[in-house]
Write a structure and sequence with these properties.
Keywords: FAD, Flavoprotein, Lipoprotein, Magnesium, Metal-binding, Transferase. This is FAD:protein FMN transferase. InterPro entries: ApbE (IPR024932), ApbE-like_sf (IPR003374). Its EC number is 2.7.1.180. This protein has nine helices and 16 strands. The chain is an alpha+beta fold and 338 residues long. The strands form four sheets. It has an eight-stranded antiparallel β-sheet. It has a three-stranded mixed β-sheet with strand order 1-10-9. Strands 4-6-5 form a three-stranded antiparallel β-sheet, with helices on one face. α1 packs antiparallel against α6, α3 packs parallel to α7 and α6 runs antiparallel to α7.
Length: 338
Amino acid sequence: MTAPVARRVAIPIIPEMPHAVSSAERIRELAGTTMGTTWTVKFVGSSARAQTLHRMIPLALERVIAQMSPWEGQSDISRFNRLALNRWQDLPPEFSRVMVSALRIAAESGGAYDPTMGALVDLWGFGPSGARASPPSPDEIAQRHRECGWRRLDLDAGARRMRRSSYGLLDLCGIAKGFAVDLVAETLRELGIHNALVEIGGELRGLGVKPDGSPWWVEIDRPARPTDKAAAEPILVALHQLAIATSGCERGFTRGADHFSHTLDPRTGWPIANGMMTATVLHPSCMEADGYATALMVLGPDAGVDFAVKHQLAALILFRQGDAVMERTTPALDAMLA
């Protein structure tokens, strides 16, 4: 007989009571592809609502791609990256909203998250130009790095316009997927769906509850079991009016004994090599959780936890310490586990 797996359970403080749902209602599921990954929506509602959502969800996702995908030559972000220096470009509401969040997280983290890393992301083989099997030269890295810098962006949020004073290319891949989750969740609410679970590429946001009154349970992503036995227990999160995003180092390439992560440190232009494996953040906004998780990966175990504590983030990080895999949680997450 297999022994049961012990689990820790994280239950957030509920900011509002969930909408009443009949136990006779059923959970319906829709799914598709977007942004090079998959999406799923589980919701409590009728088949007629499913038909409406089948039309409306892809339209919301297409807006994100049309505005923020560097793989689309005519997207708003691609047009901005071709714009002459110090020229204003008008931004759609969604793009402007993401930029407000991106620049705030860049400022809070001292540039550990930076939305102007597009040229370096591409140089390292993680952008539209395609993969590479060996690292670029230090001179190439230094040249592209000199062009980056979030402080060289000038965002006029009131007028929804932006300009740049250097040729650093905008890249929102560390925050746009989380925004897409939020946008789908908001689309559901506008259509009267108040009980649902939205997922895009492993990032999730929960609304309300299931027909039986239970929350949408999700397990925090863990690529390896930590060395500490207590910490090895999986964590289940009740995702009620809450989102979860995890950033990791699983993507990249290996050259000899070296692994080059797709997560780049904006402060150096090189892939991170700080022992970080994953950073998971719980937040009411999936966009915010996404951006903060990226910043924590760059900051590393000590500075990352200090940052998360300062900003009252519910977060969990896994990192390597020698041959051991270690876990750290923040007080905000510990409070949910209490």
